[in-house]
Amino acid sequence: MPTGISTIAGTEAQVQQSGCINPSSLWSCALPKEEQAANAPYAGNQPNFRVEIRFKNGTYDHSTAVVSRSLEVLASRSTDELFNPSPSPPSVAEQTFLGNATDGNSVPYAGEETPFYITIISPVSSGRLSRRSSSNPFPDIASLIPSPSTNLDGTAAAATLYPLPSSQPVRLYNRGEDNEHYGFYNYFDKSIFLSSTTPLTGHQDTTANDTDGGSTEADARVRCTWAQTRFLVQIWTKPDKVGKQLLPAPSTTSSARATSTSTTQATSSSSATDFTRPGSFPYPVTITLDRHGGTASKKMVYCYGMESDQHINSTEKKFQIENRGFDGTLINPAPGIFNLSSWESLSSESSDSGGYDGGRGGCACEWVNWISAV
Question: Are 203 and 196 in contact (CB under 8 A)?
């Protein structure tokens, strides 16, 4: 596994499924409109990714050992800060459930621990600073919808296609098999701006231009959130066995050469800034967004209205009906959002089966940096 910072450039959208909801523009596999220019020359649905992988010393017997108690204490403090995952990884019980019911892993379904930790870094300068007002959990129907995410000035927080988790523990799946891979997953709030008011009114708006990443924030009338969306990363360790070849690099005259780097830069620096397809990461990678798993009591789709000055109208809000089993079959589907008698039992993130909404189906995105060679 390569350590350090590297890039996954110009990924191909292998799956773009938005049939789980109406209007289908509520789910998009393209970057928000504001982020698409920085992603050029790739299309909005071909996002770049930047990853940092660290190796944690002392994880195994053969790892580097510290030589004194004082150094051990200092190293422990530094390690705690460096390898503290945010958000926390899902429970092993849930990882076992989804590993078996959705991801097709072999025993152990939750994979094996490794000394590697991964952070997803923004490919551009990020301004994702937002807050959400806290409140008592679910005291009545009106407050089932979480408070809106806003910037410090009260305007709507930026739309988010994929998260930037840090220090996620990487696990090894299917050891020794052809489809052996490293990976991790966690959950985040996927969000999108729409110029159409259909999610709030139910009336079709034929004038809205909400395809390919939604609307710009300036044109938005609605901000919608997909709470507890799963973000899954799989790194294939035996590409020849599974027929996955990295996307070909463009010719010297191709427009797909994104970011040039100075020849005087160090190799490590270049690998962190090279967004010429396929990027500097040397293994085939599959990155997926889907609606499997998650904490059932927090998992929902909801929309808030927006004013012309980009502020949220907190009184204009509505749940959206999501078909998580669209074009598939769910295993242990989560109870409905209005099943109030079950909220207490849903306070943890696992069920008797270990998790919810396994199986197949629902809205999804899948990006890859490889082409099939079989």
Answer: no
**Phi and psi of 333, rounded to 5°?**
-60, 145
Helix (H, G, I), strand (E, B) or coil at 17: strand
Helix (H, G, I), strand (E, B) or coil at 143: helix
| Rg, the chain, Cα only | 21
Give the integer Cα–Cα distance in Å for 187 and 228.
Answer: 5
Question: Residue 233, Cα to own-chain centre: how many angstroms?
Answer: 8
Hey, CA dihedral for 47, 223, 365, 290, is it positive or negative? positive
Do 138 and 369 touch, CB atoms closer than 8 A? no
> What are the residue ranges spanned by the domains of the chain?
4-63+79-125+147-246+271-372
Contact of 25 with 70, CB cutoff 8 Å: no
Cα 11 to Cα 29: distance, rounded to the nearest angstrom: 12
Name the residue among 232, 76, 226 with its Cα closest to residue 149. 226
pLDDT in tens, the chain (374 residues): 999 999 999 999 999 999 999 999 999 999 999 999 999 999 999 999 999 999 998 755 544 334 345 555 545 555 667 899 999 999 999 999 999 999 999 999 999 999 999 999 999 865 544 555 444 333 444 568 999 999 998 899 999 999 999 999 999 999 999 999 999 999 999 999 999 999 999 998 877 789 999 999 999 999 999 999 999 999 999 999 999 999 998 876 555 555 443 333 334 558 999 999 999 999 999 999 999 999 999 999 999 999 999 999 999 999 999 999 999 999 999 987 543 334 444 444 446 789 999 999 999 999 999 999 87
Residues 6+ apart with CB under 8 A from 354: 91, 93, 94, 96, 97
Q: Whole-model pTM above 0.85? A: yes
Q: Are 24 and 301 in contact, with CB atoms under 8 Å apart?
A: no
CA 270 to chain CA centroid, nearest Å: 25
| Residue 68, burial from CB neighbour count under 10 angstroms (0-12, 13-18, 19+) | exposed
